[in-house]
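Justification of computing resources. Each target in the renewal requires a structure prediction run like the one illustrated here; the chain below, 165 residues long, is used simply to show the kind of job we budget for.
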Amino acid sequence: MEKGINIDDLKNLVNQFTVDVVNEYKRELILDGKKATGNLIKNVKPLEVEENGNKIIGRISLPDYWKWVEKGRKPGGKFPPPDKIRKWVDDKPILPREVNGITPTKGQLSFLIGRKIHEKGIKAGNQLSNSIDNVYNKYNKSISDKLDKFIDTNLIIINRTLDGK
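Resulting structure tokens:
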């Protein structure tokens, strides 16, 4: 009879799941052009799997601004932090272009970008949630196939036992 799955197998499965989510998330970010500095992509990492009571928990580490990339930002509210916009302008790098004979400084350009974000918001990217869904669907199919095989194998054994074979 085929043996069941043990806690170490589950931990390994959850660990591989988080690693696959991280890799898929990085791929989604690159495909969506979310690589201004590469900082987000570089700093997405799987954390060690934890046991908490009867739960096995897989987590990933992300820079704090991931949520703005993922969920976007609605128009209005507070202006985005000017220092963060300026750093983004420097890192990207974005070169100011002349408009009506005037070339804005990087500080002015940062203000203009911040104002546009304030007025129009930022569209949600949903790269992380899409990555989790994609990896979950892959694992769900794999686990379902293994479970089907396990049930089929054990039903045959049960039937043979009942039939006296």
